């Protein structure tokens, strides 16, 4: 516990034009990043008469993709994939737009559908129409996995992180509102108690006035004119008492009677504490005896609350109570030492007593400071006005309304339980996204390998024992165990009459053996590193 003070912090949104300028700058930067590989390739010689139109068309496609990446990021990704069919340099833009698709898309279903369509379309195009081999298909599928799927997962993870941050901020806001509401309820309860005390004291005084007026009304030595005036005074006082009851009395709590016995002073409080066994020392100046009503009530309440807390949390510890006056200010200090045997078992304090004290002191025009001391004790110090001051109206405008622009923007307040559930869900989604981002690429790679490997190795595996038994000079028809199908000839190799086989290496099934024939006879056999 420390100084009890409330600080209002107002934050304002950035201007709309500044937000638009920032978005435009980011889009221009994105456009420069994705255009650089394509522009550099087209700007390099040799040039043809189609170079400039192709360059303009490619830049137009990338510009449309950048513009669409804000609201339709999946459309931008599809444009980059389609552009890679014409120019391989579009591949550099695929990871960028894929990341943005994961970062800016709220749902997962459309992205999965797009990836499935790209996979199915690419498979049909390469294996069906273009007649590419399994190795080419595997290479393109791997590019799709690591250049599109993996960046999308990373973007999705970053989006979940942002949602977690927002959920955490909303949770903190909800808890802050709840604590502020609890403090406000305590202040209102204290104001109601003060109103009840005002009702009791003023009602008592008005009742005495009405009683004296009634005595004058029935006095035998009073003439009729004065007797009538006394009756009117008595009726007016009675009506004022009823109005006071209606205006202030309704604010009293169910246990509405004031907890302070009539006429009880700080010295009486100290005497009662001593009789209960507490070691209390009182040091009070005579000038503090004549104080305004609000200040006197506040000083009495401070001492009573401090003594109660000392008895509860520091049993057996000596307590010093001091009331001093300096000009137009009165200082009330209650200090207790550390408990000799430790504090008694008790539920944790919620600080409502100090909040109520702070509200009472504030309404009296003073300040309150309370907190632990270095020696383990506790101190409560209040500075109150020694002269009457105009009371602050209850429910002043300074305490009404939201405390920041962000609360106005968020609309209706969210309950802490809802905010906590939202935070829990956001944490769960972040953990799941991180797990998927780490595991999914490996799983997809394994799936691709298990799909590609049987296709690539079917009828092309030549084991080492069979290779060693093959004799150079033998006719091809005499070779036992020769696979029924050959692998594609490696691109850098251009040797006619040679056949290539694999030993079944996983997952690529790369060529391992080379058998060269001339006129149908084996002229050489080699192991390919």
Automatic annotation (TrEMBL):
Which InterPro entries does the entry link to?
Answer: HATPase_C_sf, HATPase_dom, Sensor_HK_TwoCompSys, Sig_transdc_His_kin_sub3_dim/P
Q: Where is this region: Disordered?
A: 390-420
E.C. designation(s): 2.7.13.3
Which transformation does this protein catalyse, written as a reaction? Answer: ATP + protein L-histidine = ADP + protein N-phospho-L-histidine
* Stretches with biased composition (Basic and acidic residues): 406-420
Q: Which residues form the Signal transduction histidine kinase subgroup 3 dimerisation and phosphoacceptor domain?
A: 190-254
EC category = transferase
Q: Which residues cross the membrane?
A: 24-43, 50-68, 74-101, 108-129, 135-154, 434-455
Q: Residue ranges of the Histidine kinase/HSP90-like ATPase domain?
A: 299-387
Q: What Pfam families does its record include?
A: HATPase_c, HisKA_3
Q: Name one GO molecular function term.
A: kinase activity
Q: Which UniProt keywords apply?
A: ATP-binding, Kinase, Membrane, Nucleotide-binding, Phosphoprotein, Transferase, Transmembrane, Transmembrane helix, Two-component regulatory system
Q: Does the keyword Transmembrane apply?
A: yes
Official protein name in the record:
histidine kinase
Q: Which species is this record about? A: Micromonospora saelicesensis
């Amino acid at each position: 516990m420390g100084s009890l003070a409330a600080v209002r912090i107002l934050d304002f949104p950035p201007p709309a034009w500044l937000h638009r300028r920032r978005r435009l700058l980011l889009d221009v930067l994105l456009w420069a990043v994705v255009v650089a590989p394509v522009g550099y390739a087209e700007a390099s010689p040799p040039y043809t008469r189609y170079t400039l139109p192709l360059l303009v068309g490619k830049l137009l496609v990338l510009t449309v993709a950048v513009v669409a990446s804000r609201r339709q990021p999946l459309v931008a990704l599809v444009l980059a994939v389609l552009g890679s069919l014409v120019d391989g340099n579009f591949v550099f833009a695929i990871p960028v737009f894929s990341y943005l698709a994961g970062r800016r898309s709220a749902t997962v279903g459309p992205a999965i559908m797009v990836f499935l369509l790209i996979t199915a379309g690419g498979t049909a195009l390469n294996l069906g129409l273009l007649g590419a081999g399994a190795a080419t298909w595997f290479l393109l599928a791997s590019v799709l996995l690591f250049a599109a799927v993996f960046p999308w997962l990373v973007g999705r993870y970053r989006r979940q992180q942002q949602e977690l941050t927002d959920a955490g901020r909303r949770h903190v806001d909800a808890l802050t509102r709840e604590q502020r509401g609890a403090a406000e309820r305590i202040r209102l309860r204290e104001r109601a108690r003060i109103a009840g005390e005002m009702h009791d004291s003023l009602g008592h005084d008005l009742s005495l006035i009405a009683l004296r007026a009634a005595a004058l009304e029935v006095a035998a030595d009073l003439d009729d004119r004065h007797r009538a005036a006394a009756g009117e005074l008595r009726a007016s006082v009675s009506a004022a008492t009823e109005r006071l009851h209606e205006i202030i009395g309704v604010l009293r709590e169910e246990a509405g009677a004031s907890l302070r016995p009539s006429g009880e002073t700080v010295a009486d409080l100290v005497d009662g504490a001593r009789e209960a066994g507490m070691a209390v020392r009182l040091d009070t100046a005579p000038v503090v005896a004549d104080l305004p009503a609000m200040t006197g009530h506040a000083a009495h309440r401070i001492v009573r609350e401090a003594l109660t807390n000392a008895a509860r949390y520091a049993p057996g510890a000596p307590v010093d109570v001091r009331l001093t006056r300096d000009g137009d200010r009165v200082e009330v200090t209650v200090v207790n030492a550390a408990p000799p045997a430790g504090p008694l078992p008790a539920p944790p304090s919620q600080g409502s007593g100090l909040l109520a004290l702070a509200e009472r002191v504030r309404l009296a025009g003073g300040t309150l400071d309370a907190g632990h001391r270095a020696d383990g004790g506790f101190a409560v110090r209040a500075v109150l006005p020694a002269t009457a001051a105009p009371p602050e109206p209850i429910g002043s405008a300074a305490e009404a309304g939201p405390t920041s622009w962000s609360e106005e923007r968020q609309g209706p307040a969210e309950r802490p339980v809802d905010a906590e559930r939202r935070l829990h869900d956001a944490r769960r989604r972040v953990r799941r996204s991180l797990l998927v981002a780490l595991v999914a690429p490996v799983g997809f790679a394994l799936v691709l390998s298990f799909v590609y490997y049987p296709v690539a190795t079917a009828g092309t595996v030549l084991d080492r024992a069979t290779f060693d038994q093959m004799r150079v000079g033998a006719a091809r028809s005499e070779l036992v165990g020769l696979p029924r199908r050959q692998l594609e000839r490696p691109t850098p190799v251009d040797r006619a009459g040679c056949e290539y086989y694999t030993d079944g290496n996983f997952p690529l099934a790369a060529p391992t053996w080379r058998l060269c024939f001339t006129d149908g006879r084996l002229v050489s056999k080699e192991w390919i590193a």
